[in-house]
Write a structure and sequence with these properties.
Blueprint (H helix, E strand, L loop, with lengths): L8 H13 L20 E5 L2 E4 L4 E4 L14 H13 L9 H12 L5 E5 L2 H16 L3 E5 L26 E4 L4 H10 L3 E6 L17 H11 L3 E5 L12 H4 L6 E4 L10 E5 L4 H6 L10 H17 L1 H22 L3 E5 L6 E5 L3 H12 L3 E2 L14 H17 L1
Parallel strand pairs: 3-13, 5-6, 5-7, 7-8, 8-9
Antiparallel strand pairs: 1-2, 2-3, 4-10, 9-10, 11-12
Length: 405
Amino acid sequence: MKNTTYEVKKSDEFFKKAKEVIPGGIFGHYKYAVRDSGPKFFSKSEGAYFWDLDDNRYVDLMCGYGPSILGYNHPEVEEAFKSSSMKGNTVSVASPVMVDLAAKLVEMVDIADWALFGKNGGDATSLAVMIAREFTGKKKIIKIDDGYHGVAPWMQDKDRPGIISSDSEHVLKVKWNDIGSLEKLLTLNNDVACFISSPYDHPVMRDNSIAETGYWENVTKLCKKHNVLTIVDDVRAGFRINLRGSNVSFNFEPDMICFGKAIANGHPLAALVGKEALREAAESVYFTGTQFFSGPPMAAALATLEELEKVDAPSVLIKYGEKLNQRLEGVASEKGFNLIASGMPSMPYYRLEGVSFETHIKWIDECVKRGVYMLAYHNHFVSLAHTEEDIDFIESAAKQAFENL
């Protein structure tokens, strides 16, 4: 691989145009990825790659922030989507594919006795909280400090623009892996409806961490003791750790699980599954949206889940991530740096130890300029479309990036 870097002139020009009609040019979580030297818009995507407006190709280690688990434009998934689209999209009554997808999730996911659908992961988490409140008759939510469960006002920090203090007045926070603090909160508050957490801690801008031995066992015991429902936010990690639910790999049973991102390989869909005891509460809660019953994304999800089952996708992704981590750690060491890969190998978070965060950002920028799309603050993702050749390419780009530091 030649030591050349990409130019993004067309992308920068289009970004100027975007700023005229869109506040900030790019909004939401995508705006945090905008760098002067990096791509802002894509022209096409295929498999493990996307191309920017200057026709630069990138090996994508973000996978759309997680949705692309099979790779972009996967033929079976896209065929299922198109076939369903020919029959209708959002129609005045539901498509039968909704029932087929719900049945598939009930069959696949260990704790699932029923399934409901939305569009974003935040739909699933907000619905889960409402069901918990209806079932328990209690108000408060316990979440992990820095845990992310969507952009609903109840989840956002009080100092965020547009958020008022009352939005989160019923939200309590505990540190990850801190059973003592959780027990104290539950003892002092008899109005807690639910505890919500990702299956392992994957915050932004710091190392990800797996639960300590016995953590989840103690969490579920404490919650049952205090009549508190346990909700797993599997939106980001879902189907990348275990197809039966990430909780299975950590040996515990939640009451509800929220899915999104990878469930339909990039088509807009989220799902909430739960136990039989919550069926009546789930039926009584009113939570809906105009496009919630769109059939084609559900058909895409059904095809995605079937493709994931064929190869036991989580085991493949984890093995690939382990190999990628080892190669990157090795080239970092070779160049005098210490790269930390934390979290699950199928969605690793990278950090350069012993240097400033600005240096870490610089390394990421240098990788991006050489065709490896990464972010400095967020965990990464691998897909089934990534190949051994891609690892070679990533390693070479990372090596040149380290040399440039």
